[in-house]
Amino acid sequence: MQLRYSFRVYPSAGQRQSLAKAFGCARVVFNDALRVVEDARAAGLPFVTSGELSKRLTAAKKTPERAWLGEVSSVILQQSLRDLDTAYRNFFDSLKGKRPKMGPPRLKSKRDTRQAIRFTPNAGWKITPGGKLRLPKVGDVAVKWSRTLPSTPTTVTVLKDSAGRHFASFVVETGPEEGLPTTTPEVGIDLGLGHFAVLSDGRKIDSPRFLRRAEKQLKKAQRALSRKDKGSANRNKARVRVARAHARVADARREFHHQLSTKLICENQAIAVEDLAVKGLARTRLAKSVHDAGWSQFVTMLEYKASRYGRTFVRIGRFEPTSQVCSACGIQDGPKPLHVREWTCAECGTVLDRDINAAVNVAKAAGLAVSARGAQVRRGLVPAQCDEAGTHPEPRPTTARQTGIALLQMGEDVNGTAKPWAGLSLPRRSGQAVRDHQKPGRRPRA
Q1: Positions marked catalytic
Q2: Residue 424 burial (CB < 10 Å; 0-12/13-18/19+)?
Q3: Are 139 and 73 in contact, with CB atoms under 8 Å apart?
């Protein structure tokens, strides 16, 4: 399978300017080709192919208006045309129902802070012996190698995000030699907001809530941005600070997803999850918490890592009644409100934790061999038999304190002598007043 490995790169000031020029040229070529295709469609002409667009690009580079396109590598310009062709192909496939619905390609804006260019082997890029990335017409760019590439990469994509950071993304081919040893455990996962993930073996992983924890800092940075004049240099600096704050949140969330997904893949032979309607949940009042959890990214990591390391990954339907079925006896007793986190099965009397019970049912719906050991919290209260009902069969001896309390309520002391205040109603303003009346021989306070 093909995998991407991303590394942070640190271009110099001159290399940043060269990369900015390459980003701009790739954007202009994409927009020019899109206009040509749309003009042909409006005129009722046949669809313009990629070969025809490539010929027009070569001719445009010879004109004074587009002569500056020759200052960058021609490979990234050709890749822009490939990107446009892929965008149209995906759009047509969505109209035919072969993929989820998506819109047609749109023009790229020069004000978009996220840019990307792609180099193929024909461009002549390479990794130097000193560990730098040599890009044509850019130079040798320093790379922070956090890990070793498993094989020789085929293409490299240079990206710039909203925070002004640059990354190099390599595409590599991996083989079946990376498979993990076979193991026995199989687990079902129930994703949620209170707990990020609840496993069928009873474990609960707390939700880190990275966005919620950084809200105070984000609010301060966003307030500072709103006070800057539009178009000023200070506003651009404030925008970068906001983007960097959001980037730190996204990086922390991605790291958490990677660590948890790798741990689950290493520990279990098969994993089952529920197909959640994230887009629908993102339109509710829980939208911020849903986006903060990042369920889609986590499930995607589980899926590709399971395929990479030889594990089984199963995704069950979203309409499976996992929260309505007892994992012990299988009876279904209807939906329950969200505030009901624990319920008792009316058939078998088992007290079930809502999340763990759902995780067990997710695993069972996927056909995994799991038990309900984690779903059962405790046995419910069983009614006593008729011959066992009641309290103690013989009267138990009472203590002096219990007797004194009972007699004082009738106006007598512990010796049975009637008190002159027997018919008075005793004050109950505080616990101390009641304790004073329990002491024989003392008159109550007024």
Answers
A1: 190, 274, 355
A2: exposed
A3: no
